[in-house]
Amino acid sequence: MTTLFLVRHGRTGWNKEQIFRGTKDIPLDEVGRKEALLVGERLKVEEIKAVYSSPLARAKETAEAIARFHNVEVQNLPGLTDLNFGAWEGQSLDEVKKQFPDLYQQWLQTPHHVMFPGGEGLDTVRSRAMKAIEEIIERHPQETVALVSHRVVLKVLVCALLGLDNSHFWNIAQDTTAINCFQHRDGTWICNFLNDTCHLKGVGEERGKVDF
After folding, report:
1. Measured between alpha carbons, how far is 151 from 169 in angstroms, rounded to an integer?
2. pLDDT classification of 201: cutoffs 50, 70, 90
3. Contact at 8 Å (CB) between 150 and 8?
4. What stretches of 44-187 adopt beta strand conformation (E)?
5. Residue 103 CB: number of other CB atoms within 10 A?
6. Active site residue 184
7. Which of 116, 211, 125 is nearest to 170 (CA)?
8. Residue 206 pLDDT more than 70?
9. Residue pair 199/39 in contact by the 8 Å Cβ criterion
10. How much is the pLDDT for 211?
11. Three-class SS of residue 109?
12. What is the dotted CATH code of the domain comprising 9-147+163-178+195-207?
């Protein structure tokens, strides 16, 4: 049995300002660094044998806060990189609503059918992220592993592991430094918990809107 802790990265300034990040390499802000420290503290009691991360700084910083308690190096896994939002990257939510009104409505209503101009769609993200998961399972049978990724990636991964298609994307919440726990037993995925942020009670109102 392999146990996976799937963790979203901490807050960035672009999360706070509701700017689409995607492949833009945005670091954690002050609140995000606090969140990362707290998720590291939360997971220090687990016997984590490896920590994997998206190559982007916001994920790596969060992963390093987890890895330091387990004497392991963070390993980059490109399959965990955020969705490429294409022309939306670096644009605020309000700007996107004005410039891409039809596509934005499609994103809200049928996200699984959206292909971002100059970017990618959810099916592509799901395929590469699941390949990353399969690689981790092969490398770490009978071990506990943490991986740090992004909101979109984790939403589609949770859908995949629960046997849901990507039309359920908006039914999955993923707050900053949320923890999701799955176990792989005899070829079957078991969900222990989703979107757990109990470790963030001390951060409080500083966090603002977190599922963006």
Report:
1. 10
2. confident
3. yes
4. 48-53, 74-76, 144-149, 179-185
5. 16
6. no
7. 211
8. no
9. yes
10. 72
11. helix
12. 3.40.50.1240
Report d(CA 205, CA 207) in Å as an integer.
Answer: 5
Residue in 9, 70, 184, 199 annotated catalytic: 9
Is 168 a known active-site residue?
no
Q: Contact at 8 Å (CB) between 12 and 26?
A: yes
pTM assigned to the model: 0.95
The pLDDT tens digits of the residues spanning 82-112 come to: 999 999 999 999 999 999 999 999 999 999 9
The two structure tokens encoding residue 83: 């969705």
Cα–Cα distance measured from residue 52 to residue 63, given in angstroms and rounded to the nearest whole number: 7
Cα→Cα distances 95→38, 91, 98, 100, 105, Å: 33, 6, 5, 8, 14
Catalytic choice (70, 150, 184, 199): 150
Q: With DSSP H G I counted as helix, E B as strand and the rest as coil, what are the percentages for the chain, rounded to 5?
A: 45, 20, 35
Q: What is the pLDDT of residues 4-50, one digit of tens each?
A: 999 999 999 999 999 999 999 999 999 999 999 999 999 999 999 99
